[in-house]
């Protein structure tokens, strides 16, 4: 018998750069309901602290300070928000065909209400709400955009249920 030493790694967090940290914290906490773990704070470039040195390692030397905030989803996934004072303040053009992070996805059984809330904060609905398996499973999805131009997807059901056969029966 062979033992598979590989195992599925859990998802810890995602980092998102936003143009205004306070507006982003407000949007993601009020609309998405994510818990604020750490209010916005400044990180300065310096080598005397672990966080300062780690940020120099990650970002290099072409920065002096930035703002950061930490939020968490209901299932404990971290959302790390960054705002750099000299960064470009608009999201790059949406191009899923290029290599890189394409989108993230959240789950909410009331997709219509969540989309309405996103729109009320200046976000966009990028497509009509669609059903993955019409007349078979009641699973819906939709791509949206936050007020800062960051594209994400909404599912009504879990990823596993959405893609597994026999996961839902009438």
Automatic annotation (TrEMBL):
Keyword S-adenosyl-L-methionine carried by entry: no
Keyword field: Lyase, Metal-binding
Ranges where the VOC domain occurs: 10-157
Domain of life assignment: Bacteria
GO molecular function: lyase activity
Name this protein carries in UniProt: Lactoylglutathione lyase family protein
One Pfam family in the UniProt entry: Glyoxalase
Coiled-coil stretches: none
């Amino acid at each position: 018998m062979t033992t598979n030493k590989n195992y599925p790694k859990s998802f810890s967090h995602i980092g998102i750069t936003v143009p205004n940290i306070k507006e982003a914290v407000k949007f993601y906490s009020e609309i998405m309901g994510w818990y604020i773990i750490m209010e916005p704070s400044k990180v300065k470039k310096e080598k005397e602290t672990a966080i300062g040195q780690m940020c120099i390692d990650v970002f290099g030397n072409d920065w002096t300070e930035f703002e950061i905030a930490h939020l968490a989803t209901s299932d404990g996934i971290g959302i790390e928000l960054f705002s750099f004072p000299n960064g470009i303040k608009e999201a790059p053009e949406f191009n899923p065909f290029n290599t890189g992070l394409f989108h993230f996805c959240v789950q909410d059984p009331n997709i219509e209400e969540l989309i309405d809330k996103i729109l009320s904060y200046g976000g966009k609905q990028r497509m009509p709400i669609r059903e993955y398996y019409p007349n078979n499973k009641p699973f819906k999805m939709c791509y949206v955009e936050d007020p800062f131009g960051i594209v994400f997807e909404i599912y009504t059901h879990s990823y596993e249920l959405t893609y597994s056969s026999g996961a839902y029966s009438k």
